[in-house]
Amino acid sequence: MTFFRTCSFVFSFLAAPLFMYLQPKPSLPATSGSVIPGEAMLQPRSGHTATLLPDGKVLITGGMKRNQDFYRSAEIFDPATGKFQLTGEMNVARVGHVAVLLHSGKVLIAGGWIGRGATDSCELYDPVTGRFTPLAKMTAKRGNPRATLLADGDVLITGGADHDTPGGVSSAEIFHASTFSFESLASMHSARISHTATLLQNGLVLIAGGRGDVVNASAELYDPRTKKFVETGSLCIARYKHTAGLLPDGKVLIAGGSDERDWSGALGSSEIYDPRSGQFSRAPSLHEARFKLPENAVQLPSGFLLIAGGSRQVEIYDPRSGNFALASGELSDAWHFMTETKLPDGRVLLAGGYANSEKATAQTWLYRP
Questions:
Q1: Which of the chain's termini has less CB crowding within 10 Å, N or C?
Q2: Where does residue 129 rank: exposed (0-12), middle (13-18), buried (19+ CB within 10 A)?
């Protein structure tokens, strides 16, 4: 069995229907910030991770060049020079994994696809030595899970898939950073893959959307105090492969994604979750429908949110007006499963992804507010 078949529901390396790109576009608003090309990565990557390190550099790990061609390699982006250099290799070649910066300054790498299925393997990257060290395994194999750093320094890991079916799993676990061990949790109320997990200002984690047997609109909250999931209001529109971003007032923007039609069901809609009411409400639409987005939309120093991927255009959400504006400049293609990382100086590194074939790109761009 090829990775194409195993993970087609995650990466869907299928050519997009032509009508997606022939739809008339709305009139363009005033631009907000600009996008310029950056230096290329050392290797083309899609489904990789990008993690801001304590010294301001960015760790890029794994991903794939093309179907069944996964990387153990990792590289470091230095914002001071704008260039990439190799660092140590992971112990496992993986794609669709998670990477979380721990309070210790080290980076937890967990799960993902390793070829013909998901893995429960984990490792720890030390920026001081540039090396990856194997850790104990997770309690379940997880391809394309979500990982959230909690206030106490532990990591919540939710969902993903462990088998050759379109749906995700409902299981979840905690990585204890002090002991490098994993603890199984009571399951979520819904099975999920390609959902979002957003740490709220009150310490709870909002889990929204994703796919179980079907793409769903359900949402729930994880409470670190009780270690349990409780249901909250439902999304206005069922979606997966979307993005979510925390706003300065504590609300959460949910945007884009797709319904069960995948390529032909990409969404331009957005909505807002209010933790006080526990409800979602509709918000203005994006200027272009897009899916296969980075899970977390970057919050800029201004409090605006950046949304990139799945389109040539980069959009900026202004929470004061509740509208989206387009950045000037554009990407070279509608790159899917790219990464976006806020740099210490307020710029955002956009890296990699794939367009309408299984081949990834090494291209990067820099967004300047």
A1: N
A2: exposed
> Which residue in 176, 174, 171 sits closest to 159, CA to CA?
171
Alpha-carbon 4 to chain mean position: 20
CATH number belonging to domain 193-325:
2.120.10.80
Amino acid letter, residue 149: L
- Asked if 152 and 137 count as a contact pair (C-beta separation under 8 A), the reply is no
Nearest to 270 by CA among 287, 252, 289, 283: 283
Q: What are phi and psi of 275, to 5 degrees?
A: -60, -25
Phi, psi of 299 (to 5 degrees): -90, 120
Question: Mind giving me the DSSP string for 107-137?
Answer: EEEE--B-SSSB---EEEEETTTTEEEE-PP
Closest CA to 287 of 254, 306, 314, 309: 314
Mean pLDDT (whole number) for 309-319: 97
CA separation for the pair 336, 157 (Å, rounded): 23
Burial 95-114 (b: 16+ CB within 10 A, else e): bbbbbbbbeeebbbbbbbbb
Q: Is there a contact between 213 and 191 (Cβ–Cβ < 8 Å)?
A: yes
pTM for this model (two decimals): 0.91
Q: Distance (Å, rounded) from C-alpha 71 to C-alpha 62?
A: 5
pLDDT at 350 over 60: yes
**pLDDT one-digit tens code per residue, 74-111:** 999 999 999 999 999 999 999 999 999 999 999 999 99
Residue 190 pLDDT > 90, yes or no? Answer: yes
CA distances from 166 to 69, 97, 199, 260 (A): 21, 17, 26, 10
Q: How far, CA to CA in Å, does 215 sit from each of 10, 168, 259?
A: 13, 10, 6
pLDDT cut 90: percent of the chain above it: 87
Amino acid at 34: S
* Cα–Cα distance for residue pair 2/13, rounded to 1 Å: 12
Give the strand pairing for 69-70 and 323-328: unpaired
Distance of alpha carbon 9 from alpha carbon 5, whole angstroms: 8
For the chain, the straight-line distance linking the first and the last C-alpha, in angstroms and rounded, comes to 45
Q: Which amino acid is at 87?
A: T
- Are the CB atoms for 214 and 166 separated by under 8 Å? no
